[in-house]
Amino acid sequence: MPSSGILSNLRSLTVFGSDEENQHDPGQFRFLRVLDLEDAEALKKKDHQLQSIHKLFQLKYLGLCGGVSKLPKQIQVLENLETLEISRTRIRQLLAVDGRGFGKLVHLLRTDLELPSGVGNMKELQELSMVEIYQSSTAQYVQELGKLENLRILGLKWSLKKDDNDCEGCEKRLVEALKKLGGLSLQSLCLDAGKDSSLDFLESSEPSLKLGQFKLACSHYYFPRLPTKMADAKLLACLEIGIATVQEGDLKILRGLPALIFLKLRVKASSGLVIGNQGFTSLEEFWYESGDVTLTGLKFDKGAIPKLWKLRLRCDASSVETAGLKFVLLSVVHQPSTRSIPSTTSTRILFIIFRRRSRDNSDLVSSAFRRRLSDY
Fold first, then answer.
1. Partner of 153 for a Cys bridge, out of 188, 319, 357, 366, CB 3.0 to 4.6 A?
2. Handedness of CA 93, 94, 95, 96 (dihedral sign)
3. How many structural domains does the chain have?
4. CATH number of the domain bearing residue 77
């Protein structure tokens, strides 16, 4: 073990394991810039070790583990702290931000973190994910999101229900905040919805003109239709979204997104989905998930999605008709456009994922792969 004099000059420290006897008090390393305690099991029993955190005046990165349940008040004096990684902790509440603490914080990472009071004072914040808006959140707190002028990445979980206090006011403030952020630096937006919560009020909201990634993280919620103003997101490269019923107008918007490379489309119900040979000029990967429909309505026209190299289909095996599955496989596998992809770079990859086993369908997929490979 190095001498205490040498240890005191450390700039980066990662602590792991559960040996309590050899766990050092982080406060003795006064020149630390990186402190990673995410795998320090001993912290589950020694929350008090963080009480000396205020001594690390040069600290820029702090990562904590699952045993930590709350942040010490002293953490706000860390004027140089840029990244706070608490994703694997039990921390749900952040200290109120009064303008003195977290002044240089750039990345705040935690799943389901309650929206803190004074969040608008984090002027340098570029990444905030995921923050939760729930029953005790106020419209004023939500409005403060719009003050984060440098925010590039936002993850937000909406857990308010229609009968919750001031739900309508919070909805209005969130739409306004997202509009402000959209005119500033926002490039990535991830949305989640709590059980029995709805994001329908965002259907007409304006996306950021700089938005490169949009993700609807929850599997139980579907937008009634694709937000119409999504058509203005000309830089959108990655889109993950659920739509109750896909209409021709929705497909028109999707086809017209010039930068779209990855599309994950979840459909609750559809009378048919025809992918024509117009649009999707940049799309390389397409995931299609259907909960209660067969694949007979899914069709790819000749020359559709010319740059596609990976297709992933997820459906209910009990509802898939063999003829429909065979039609989809053949319409994709035997497209002449796929022959333009050099075999030395990449071959089109097709995944069929069933929620329940179906021996007949599995055999069909296997034979389709054999036919596809024999083409090269």
1. 188
2. negative
3. 2
4. 3.80.10.10
